[in-house]
């Protein structure tokens, strides 16, 4: 990446898949966190606050 600050942008996967192996696949693909639908607001806030 040409911008040095681009390496610090967190990526959160959002899928309908909530199995452990789906979450592991998201992390393996470079995601910082994984949220499954339907969205749990507390989980969304927890993921956001730990990444920022």
Summarize the structure in words.
With 52 residues, this protein is α+β, with helices and mostly antiparallel strands. The longest helix has 11 residues, at 41-51. It is built from two helices and two strands; from the N terminus they run βαβα. The model has no long low-confidence stretch (mean pLDDT 83). It has helices spanning 20-28, 41-51; strands spanning 12-15, 33-36. It starts with 11 loop residues before the first strand and ends with a helix. It has a two-stranded parallel sheet with strand order 1-2. 38% of the residues lie in helices and 15% in strands. The protein has one domain (13-51). β1, α1 (20-28) and β2 form a beta-alpha-beta unit.
């Amino acid at each position: 990446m040409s911008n040095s600050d681009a390496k610090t942008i967190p990526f959160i996967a959002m899928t309908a898949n909530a199995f452990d192996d789906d979450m592991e696949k998201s992390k393996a693909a470079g995601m910082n966190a994984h949220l499954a639908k339907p969205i749990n607001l507390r989980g969304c806030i927890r993921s956001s606050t730990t990444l920022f």
